[in-house]
Amino acid sequence: MHTLPASGDETGKGATLTGTVLDRTGQPVEGVLVTVGDRTAVTDARGAFRLYGLPAGEATVTVSGLSIRPVTQAVTLQSGQVQSLKLSIEEAVRELAGVTVAAKSVRYAPEVDGTTITAGKKNEVIQLDKLDANLVVNSARQVFAKVPGVTVWESDGSGQQINVATRGLSPNRSWEFNTRQNGYDISSDPFGYPEAYYNPPLEAVERIQIIRGGGSLQYGPQFGGLLNYELKRGPRDKKIEFETSNSVGNNGLLSSYNSLGGTVGKVSYFGYYQQRVGGGWRDNSEFNIRNVHGNVQFQATSRLRLGAEISHLYYEIQQPGGLTDAQFYQGNVRNSSRSRNWFSTPWTIPAFTADYQFSDRTRLSLKTFGLLGERNSIGLASSVGVDRPDAVNPATGQPANRQIDRDRYRNLGSELRLLTDYGLLGQQHTLAAGLRVAAANMSRYQQGRGDTGADFNLNLQAPRFGRDLSFRTRNYAAFVENIFRVGSRLTFTPGARLEFIDNEGRGYLSLNANGTENQIRQDSRRRVLLYGAGAELRVTDQTNLYANYSRAFRPVTFGDLTPPATSDVIDPDLKDARGFNAEVGYRGSWGNVLTFDVDGFWLRYDDRIGTIRRFVPGSTTQTQQFRTNIGTSVHKGVEAYVELDLVHAITQNFDLPHFDVFASMAFVDARYTQLRTTTLAGSNLQEGDLKNNRVEYAPKYTHRFGGTFAHQGFSATAQLTRVSAVFADANNTVAPNATATTGRVPGYSVTDLSATYRFAKRFTLRGGINNVFDKNYFTRRSGGYPGPGILPADGRTWFASVGVKL
Fold it and tell me: Is 358 helix (H, G, I), strand (E, B) or coil?
């Protein structure tokens, strides 16, 4: 390892040490510990680290980590100056001949991660190449296993939809997270329709970054915080590298992932193609999924790096619909009475990036991104019950025409972020600031008359759709957040974000018999101020206390602005749901054998939106459905993660095999403190309040326990997931209704096994069994498309993969 010259003068009295840690091939090493005296930092995805407020004079820099032997370097620190190092370790973290390697798959980020401030925030970084998991079908309960409190809806055997949430929020298409890829938006519209129909194939993902509620200040909505998928990049030390992984599984699963990347001069490149086909665990659940991605990075100067990338997804998925409770508990849960429902969301996301390094202290990042996407479905309407055969119209006995629904998305946005270190009152501090401009346009066509066939097509049998709407969103935002360092152990991080949102809706809800349109016009313009602060206290060299309070909001969505029937009314004063996340925790590691993070949280969700019945203004007899802000929920609980390297903790011999055991647990009490209801009793309206009822789909506990054995190139993981029962509606209905759309969702336990074997530096074998004991369970009840009722989770499935890297 070697030292680069000092650069930059600071007004503060402390010294600052920055640098990168590289392996023997010149690749950045993430997640290793850099120590100077009693100060420590963890390297980020770029291998970078920063240490502030160090005393001047001679010092020793130590690089250490799991399964690497510590390496030290002497350095002279000067007061008021920034010292930059490039540190090279002789042994890579990944694979060593005859040495067991089992680097942690989940950790928390350093206080500055790229241009993102994470100091004082609950956060996790999942490193996917260190996981034993079924990445072929994006097994979310395995991938997010060590992130405490993640709930998963498991109703899509294709693995295309990743439905996750934390802290008792709804997992529906991860819409309570601000979902991103490589730092830019990938959902339909974060403000009007935040559902994430697109998720990258996890075989192509390097790491997943999660910041809980504190992420709202830098990324805006939602209450869940940030969920960011960071894709792999081409290697820096090779002109060309080819990787392929080919998989098989039950029910006709075939998958092929192929990537090509490298660096030639100042240009690095990476791309992949993945295709996955299968019959699905349930009947009538075929899928054909194709993902393509390419990116090019150009090091224009020593300071300026330019990039361009594009991701494209296309798939056709057959949707088997729901079951009644009787069908689920008494019959074959793999049955389906719907063979004619299909779903597809072609998705194209281009992006352009520019990163400029003004100095060791200051970095500017610009991301410009777009979306050309669709949501297309054809099938029988949800009014056709779960117990009726789908081949015929129950009224005529003839094949029924299917319904076509289509959304089209055309979005464009840009985000500029600045990160800089500066000296003040003898300390080094860090400022992050940014601007965002975004425009989203959605066209929604629903209730189209489709054909009577069974394949996927979008051929209209009538000249017009029954519903035709267009929505527009314009968003402008600015944020600032600052790490103030107080001494060598304490940081305080206040921040604020100002959002300007302009929603506009036009079109018709339905057509009258004479062809005239029932038109709507919905406009909403508002300004939202978010603010918060975090603090972090370093208790020991490797542990810290953290606390955070951040305001959050969930914007009024297009669905909230669209009445389900022409007689329904939308409150003209409908407000965004607003509230806050608060958390306090203790996290860190001990002796390279123990990692932990335990926190308590309090989430308040005000102005929740719902529908109540009211008298038509001016009338004492006629009533109408009225969509407005009706209540508040409070979510509080404890999240805990602990992982122990059992063998090495006992023996202190790191040449022995690993046996790591972990527990990821969350206890959540999510209840309504107010939720207004109205019931029509004769000619009277009776008002009620669901106060103290549990929030739907918010489990009391979500626990995952497991263990990983690792020796040389082999590792195997066993995992047990236990989730409590939940309610499917705010009324906390226990007994299911006839269509199985409401009622209790029982708790469940499920066990998974996965293994990986890497050999000859080029080859990888993977395999696993999900739901080893073939438990029958479900995680959600559907109220509409693709058919009402219970959506069973998959029973026992298996996969096997062969991979090679050249």
Answer: coil
- CATH of residue 71's domain is 2.60.40.10
- pLDDT, one tens digit per residue, over 492-544 is 999 999 999 999 999 999 888 888 888 888 888 999 999 999 999 999 888 99
Domain boundary among 55, 73, 93: 93
* Cα diameter, the chain: 90
Domain span at residue 50? 1-93
Cβ atoms of residues 267 and 298 within 8 Å: yes
* Pairing mode, strands 39-42 and 658-681: unpaired
Number of domains in the chain: 2
Q: What does the chain come to in residues?
A: 806
Task: List all residues 6 or more positions away from 399 whose beta carbon is below 8 Å from its beta carbon.
Answer: 391, 392, 393, 452
- Do 235 and 381 belong together in one domain? yes
Q: Which of 777, 786, 788 is nearest to 742 (CA)?
A: 788
Whole-angstrom distance, CA of residue 90 vs CA of residue 72:
12
3-state helix, strand, coil in the chain (%, to 5): 5, 60, 40
How does residue 91 score in pLDDT terms, banded at 50, 70 and 90?
A: low
Record the pTM.
0.91
Reference 58, options 42, 37, 85, 38; nearest CA is 37
DSSP string, 697-764: T--SEEEEEEEEEEETTEEEEEEEEEE--EESSTT---S--TTSSSSEE--EEEEEEEEEEEETTTEE
Q: Is the peptide bond before 394 cis (omega within 30 degrees of 0)?
A: no
Q: How many CA atoms lie within 13 A of 711 on its CB side?
A: 5
Token pair belonging to 224: 């869940």
The pLDDT of residue 7 is 40
Q: Which amino acid does the sequence have at 744?
A: R
Domain boundary (93, 118, 141) is at 93
Looking at residue 790, which CATH number applies to its domain? 2.40.170.20
Query: What is the per-residue pLDDT for 114?
Result: 84
Is residue 184 domain-resident?
A: no
pLDDT digits (tens, 9 = 90+) for 97-146: 333 344 578 888 888 888 899 999 999 999 998 899 999 999 999 999 99
Is residue 113 in some structural domain?
no
- Cα separation, 244 vs 242, whole angstroms: 7
Q: How far apart are CA 71 and CA 546, in angstroms?
A: 29
Cα(628)–Cα(612) distance, rounded to whole angstroms?
8
Q: Answer for the pair 178, 479: CB distance below 8 angstroms, yes or no.
A: no
CA dihedral (153, 604, 503, 511) in degrees, to 10, reads 60
| Identity at 483, one-letter amino acid code | I
Residue 499 lies in a domain: yes
Structure tokens at 503: 């929603």
Q: Is residue 190 assigned to a domain?
A: no
Give the number of other Cβ atoms within 10 Å of residue 331's Cβ. Answer: 11
The Cα 58–Cα 64 span in angstroms is 20
